[in-house]
Amino acid sequence: MSADPLHRASTPPRRTASQPPAGRAAGQVEVRRSARRRRTVSAYREGDRTVVLIPERMSAAEEERWVTVMLDKLAAQESRRVLGDGQLAERAAQLSEQFLRGEARPESVRWVTNQNTRWGSCTPAEGSIRLSHRLQGMPEFVVDYVLLHELAHLLVPGHGPGFWRLLEAYPRTERARGYLEGVVAADRLPHLSADRTG
């Protein structure tokens, strides 16, 4: 069962604004220039894409250097934040205790790389939960929501009223749903090329 029909991840965008420098993790990098931005550079993940915000006046060489710096910075932050499969299973047990009276007991919980159209899935007969790798690096409350969503499916199949009652106990349900909807919507927007002429 998917995390929620409304929260299906869209297929990752096919067009790439620019490629990461050699030796960097694979993924799309979109550089957005702003006339209002004077000196600061920032970056964030949008699904499989990394968005780097830079001042408009920055040269191509400076852009390349800052993309490298920001990719390294994000990777360092995410390496501290991403849970391994064992930690993911521990987190599932904690969430089950805290929000589902410990009644949801999965046999296995793991990350998978073959779910690009949904955030998570659950097979109640096997007691298995799989989360899409696209969630890695997203805020902890979002990963917790998807994990809790799949745990609830171990107790209640489908998305009926009984299922949603289980999720009412999690205080960030609406915020997490909004975050995932935003990621899906952003993936559907047209992406401008980083190559600018004229």
Kindly describe this structure.
This protein has 198 residues and is of the alpha/beta class. Helices cover 39% and strands 17% of the residues. It has five helices and six strands; from the N terminus they run βββααβββααα. The strands form two sheets. A three-stranded mixed sheet has the order 1-3-2. α2 packs across α3 (140-155) and α3 packs across α5. The longest helix has 22 residues, at 60-81. Residues 5-26 and 192-198 have low confidence and may be disordered.
Short description:
This protein has helices spanning 60-81, 85-100, 140-155, 161-167, 173-188, and strands at residues 28-34, 42-46, 49-55, 108-112, 120-123, 128-132. It is α/β, with parallel strands linked by helices and 198 residues long. A hairpin with a 2-residue loop joins strand 2 (42-46) and strand 3 (49-55).
The percent range for helix content is 25-40%
Flag low-confidence runs: 5-26, 192-198
Chain-averaged pLDDT = 80
How many E-type strands?
6
The number of distinct helices, counting runs of at least 4 residues, comes to 5
- Percent in strands: 15-25%
Chain oligomer state: single chain
Q: Could you give the order of strands across the largest sheet?
A: 1-3-2
Distance between the termini: 49 Å
Largest sheet: 3 strands, mixed
Order of helices and strands: EEEHHEEEHHH
Structural class: alpha/beta
The rounded Rg comes to 19 Å
Shape: elongated
